[in-house]
Protein 1
Amino acid sequence: MKILAIFLTENKRLFREKGLILILLLMPLAFIIPIGSAYTSGAAATGDEDRPLLVIDYDGGQQAQDLIETLDESFRVERNLPVEDANKVQLDSDPDCAAPGPACDEKIARAQLKASARTLALLIPKGLSEAYAQSKQTIVTLLYDPAGDVNLRDQVQGVIKGAAISISLEKQVMQGQQDMKDLTSIAPENVKDAVAGATARSSTTDLKSAIAFTQISPSNSIDRKPPTPLQQSIPGYTVMFVFLVAGFMAGWSTEEKRNGILRRLRSSPVSTPSLLAGKLLYGLVVSLAQILVLFLATSSMFRLELGTDPLAFILVCVALATTVACLGMLASAVKFPMSAISAPLVIGALLGGCLFSPDFFPPLLRTISYFIPHTWAMTAYQDLLVRGQGLAQVLPEIGVLLLFAAVFFGLGVWRFDPLD
Amino acid sequence: MLTIKQILAIAYKETRLWLQVPGNWLTILLVPFAFIAILGSVFGGNTPVFTVFAANEDRGDLGADVIKLLDNSPNLELELVDTQAEADRRVGQGERMAAVVIPADFSEAAKTEAGGTIWVIIDPARQSNAGLVSGLVKAALSKMLVDASVEREMSKMVFDIKTGDLGGTSSFDFDTFIRAGVKAVIAKQVNEAIDNPLIDLEKEAVSVSANPIEATRLGGLVPGYTLMFLFFLLSHIATAVVEERSLGSLRRLLVTPASKAVILAGKMLPFFFIAIGQMLFVLLVSSWVFNMSLGNSPLALAVIILATALSAATLGILVASLVKNENQAGGLTILVVLVLAVISGSINDSIQIMGLNMVTPHYWARQGMLNVLQRGMGLEGVWLPAGILLGLSVVFFGVGARRFKFE
């Protein structure tokens, strides 16, 4: 009962501060709307096959065409840009841009790259096909904006290299056949005939590669639909944001101490554990409200599916909110400057895999990440939202989150001094 | 002269107060250091190293060769598990993003027309990185893929030759001779095609600068994150002001001969220098430890750092004029800072609100830093961003000073 009374007092204080409720509700929306927009209709939602790659083809021969066709399987290849594009970069009076063609494409590309209006363009030089016929090497050039998307650049580079090797192999194998003929020329006539006959019979048409790769999902993955970029990214950003609410909780308590509210409360017949439990309940409700606003807004505005098990989802949210509330309480108890809490929490988000997958981490950082609550909250949400799992699978993560909460609460009670 | 003395006196007092709190040091030095250490260890080598599970259930030589080749890949770290089931379970639990599984009959299947299959199990929660892992696995095995196909075709060809066709040559001798010969020829050609292809690729950075920088992942990420952490200073400024206001020391300052503007300038100045120190610390450590380029123009870098620091410090004064108490100064300010970082693209380049991003100081500061650090530009790359940052600083300070309440 006393816990509830403390909780209600906290709520009254919250509602008395004009606009605070509004800010607490609007802030998650302001945070999640740009992210949701980017992953549903913005740059982050663009698939590789939709990403434009300008190819400036000075060669025009068969091998250049083969290379372009291979690139077209992975990206949206652009060639012979319209004259309007030249006008946009003040090339309308340039004689090379009188008609679309590679010379104009190159000039437009260079102007756009300098202005960061384009990330990449591939330049195929004249004479590539001729050099290929003579087994001579030709260099194609990837023009790039140094401040552009490094991931895209690496992908394009990988595809170009793969295509170049594939085209080279054809030629090299033809050369190999010649070498083979030279090799068998030293054999007796009947052996030569036998080899020639067997070579002629051997056809590589429609033959499968001796080694193939097949990409599959783990067998426990229930949701068989490919996950959207939004589904993969939202848990990380949500967890990062919600942990920063701990800073707000710490500020709330610090202000109470400064105003003497805690001291007055201690003079009432309320024990320290009841006092802290009441405050914890309040913190839990505020954190939970933030989490729900984040997820429900994303779900309703960007059609994010929240998994198949609502109970499991709610329990994960409650466990996360409890951890955040306890962390906020601990932060206020250890006399840590409130302004210095948030930056370490962002480091926690980095280590917890909210911004980059922990797969990028070296082993030491991966081990450290297990001691960060963000990691467990992330895993739980990924289990539910992306892997399509249920309560049984997220119970360990819920348990670890509550363990973190218990440790934070215990340390908070130990360090808490209302008279401080 | 007197005004400058007054500003310096207030700034000195403010700096001393700020330095007395050890937690502030944590934010200014330890946190950026931790952040660089993480980013540098992940992206310092440009292409990150991925740890994946590998299970080899194949009893033949080919499976063992696959594992060996994957293990030698500089971008893959293998964690061997015993069975496909274990790999499947552990990827399914999210322990690693992927597992490479070589099935039991792989060596034998590779010799058949259907071919052998290597399974790549990908965690759906990290599907966005699946292409990278699959690409790395294929790249590591590229020579083997061709060798295995050649080996299979050769076996088929040798099998097709009837012993009677060989005259006095035994089929064993023929097989040995032809395999050794063909393998040598093909291996040479395959290696040639992969190591020295007839079409090779070179990169050319296109920039306004005549001397562009070799762009790196780390160089692309550091400016955005540096700015995100830098603007956390807003919370420090706001907290310091709220504390002084509640203690009444701001009111006491008003009875001194210093004007309100001078008092605010004095409060802002330490944070201006702290911001410069923080940015320099992050950039220098990134350069010294992880070889990140600092561009071609130290002067241009200095200009954008100064303009950015000024915008952060003045925005701090504006925020301090708006907040009323501790929880607004601390927690809420941080949430606002985080939202600004998202909108401006500092957290993730592909998540920014076009148009709205241009009203954030983060955006212009990041553009200026990228122009210097990645595009290798000089003063021509910073005059516009720095100019806009200075304009924003004037607005921030003007509005902040107007709204500021000392009591």
Note: The mean pLDDT of chain B is 81.
Protein 2
Amino acid sequence: MNKTLLEMKNITKKFPGVVALDDVNFQVTEGEIHCLVGENGAGKSTLMKVLSGVHPHGNYEGEIIIEGEVQKFFNINDSKKIGIAIIYQELALVPEMTVYENIFLGHEVTNGIKIDWNETIKRSKKVLKKVRLQVNPADKIKELGVGKQQLVEIAKALSMEVKLLLLDEPTSALSEDDSENLLNLLRALKKQGVTCVLISHKLSEIIKIADTVTVLRDGETVGTLSAEKNEITENKLIKLMVGREINDIYPKRNVKKTKDVVFEVKDWNVYDPKRGKQILTDISLNVKKGEIVGFAGLMGSGRTELALSLFGNPDRSRVSGDMYIDGEKINFSHPENAIKKGVAYVSEDRKGNGLILIQDVKQNITLANLKEIAKRGVVDNNAEIKTAKEYTTSLAIKTPSIEQKVLYLSGGNQQKVSLAKWLFVKPDILILDEPTRGIDVGAKYEIHSIMNDLVEQGMSIIMISSELPEILGMSDRIYVLSDGKISGELSIEEADQEKIMHLATN
Amino acid sequence: MSFINNIKKIFRQNIREYGMFIALFLIMIVFTIATDGIFISSRNISNLLNQTGYIAVLAVGMTLVIIIGEIDLSVGFLAGFLGAVAAIAMVSWKLPVIVVIPLVMGFGAIAGVFTALPVAKMGVPSFVASLAGWLIYRGALQMVTLKTGTIVIPNDSFNAIGNGFIPDIPGLDFLPGAHKLTLLLGLVAIALFIFNEIRSRGKKKEYKFDILPVDMFVFQIVFVSLLIFGITWILAGYNGLSWTVVIMLIVTAVYHFLSSETVLGRYIYAVGGNPEAAELSGINVERIILVVFGSMGMLSALSGILFASRLQSATTTAGQLFELDAIAAAYVGGVSAGGGVGKVTGSIIGALVMTSLTSGMNLMGIDISSQYIVRGAVLAVAVIFDVATRRRGK
């Protein structure tokens, strides 16, 4: 059983000016779940791109050996033929097509000329059963949740002869429940003999599932840990990943507790006419000065919708209820008004609606408060450069220059740019939606430290997070949302993971 | 040697921006050689610029429309229709020119906003919304011109916009044959340019920002100054600056300033780069769409005025295919179909490239069918070049 399925030997890949992979060795045994971890920019994605043929043979040095044979992949189809399937973070499904059309997209079942839809549906059912997904194969993808879509992706991979399944951060967009479900599925697939390589940032998940872990740092393999030898622990992983020990990724802060309520919402109801659905029901909440209030809940519980409906309602939902800032009743008809009143919202989806990727760092930082550096509608370019330099320094944003397009920054640095943009608005109330999703441990720590600095300066933070340790590590008080309602409020002293999960799922 | 290296480096970093200038320059050299210098003659250059006018004005507006990720197909016939409205206003309503021009431009702005309303408020694709406008204005143009056919405009001051030149300073007898006011304006422009560059360099120094080395700075100033002087010298040799060129320069200057230096300009690029992010940043995306289409409509009116004035009449087919020429000019000038990228000045160069091709090939006696093929090929090459350098631009 201990046959080596894949061996990547002495892989070196250079980009102009950077060595992305430096003599990397990576070995996967047949039938195991192998986790590949490392900070953003450590070279995980590049390694996967070499393996899948996105970076064709000849573009890198080293060898790829599969089942003892040296392989040369010139494009993705070559690696697919051998039986390597990659599931990316951004799902590659066509929302308007049905489940079965998606599963067989690219390798349709035909009887010579015409697609055999009956056979397609039959086979889809079989492979959906394999991934334990109970949906009608004729449903459209857009009608499924993210968790189910993820499973359809895996079903698509399994519908072909697959030897090696690569999953790139499959759980980063999933709720705890869906993640658990997915991990169980991977275990089941393992029993059926499918070998998995899993790229993940979630250490708890890795510890739960991995047989072997390979850690990359700055383009080099820095260690391989095995579960059999009980080597996989959180401390060891973090130490290998960052090259230093971080004992607590949730730094402590000194804030005097106050009783001044700066932000209050009463009887807040939100109805989405596009989906024809009540999103939020009778929400009441308050935030005190200098406080971090955590919002926990499952995917789809309405946390992001709540944040957006408070932030000028850009989705144009039907909203009723009262909102108060410093005791004054207010009403926002557009994010513009919310910003003017000192409310800022850092989006969960920095690439989708947080940043303008094709613009540079300085333009992104100043966008939400351009008027501050403009005189009579004319932007003062020098003041802009000065502002951008201030924020890149104070938030330690790693970028070659402030004229670099944010597209080319790492996830952690993009998130910092996004944060800088909203700090430049100088808000009193900062809403952070998944502030550390998909970024590495080091950057997480830095962002948490920044949050502490901010509340120490008197800002109030509303933090939405799907990561329970983050909620527990950073919040002063926690609201739990379930199905559009607040199902509970916990002080940090009484909160623990089980209580939160209990409230979130009831 | 560092001077040459510096030039090389700046050149390499800005290949995309300079690409269009170089292409224009090459095209001019080729035609000058092929026509034994007739192409570069004062008379031809002056004509060429006047022919570019009504398309260039449209291309400037179209640049902003494409930057916000939309398209406006209605502008050609809108220009034709509003040209006819201007003619009717003068001939039938007996309104003075000074009233007609702002009135028609106002109509244009309103028409643009109307096209944009379903786009901004309901998310109707602008291709469809403006295609509807294309049909409507085409019908409207035929309706107002069909009864009388071509409407001849008897107003001299109106017709001067498309055909006339700025007056010269009387009583100066040095440099016979050269237009003195044009030369003077050229020198003023050079002086303003140098003054502005030195001031901005000083300010940057104050902030302790990176500045160009002195030799590069001087080189840049000398190069641009010579360029401005060269163009004015050519124009001064044949009647001087035409009113069309004056209008074109003003529109370019205003829109260049607007798009690159103002908050509104930034908002336009932001909406094009990522409308959701722009909305969440407190930018009213609907309003930006309305403003950009409104400005497009206004420039369509100006284009219609220029064209009607040039022909000294409003015709049934005025404006036909203007929209496609304007779109081609914008793309040749480096505007990205993906939105969020492009420059007003680039589109002007794009418009000049396209008219230079027409003018040069006309002088060489190349038949019209081959001309279309050549222009199509140039458009394709320009867009391929743009996409290729963009991908490399990492």
Note: Residues 47-164+242-330+339-346 of chain B form one domain.
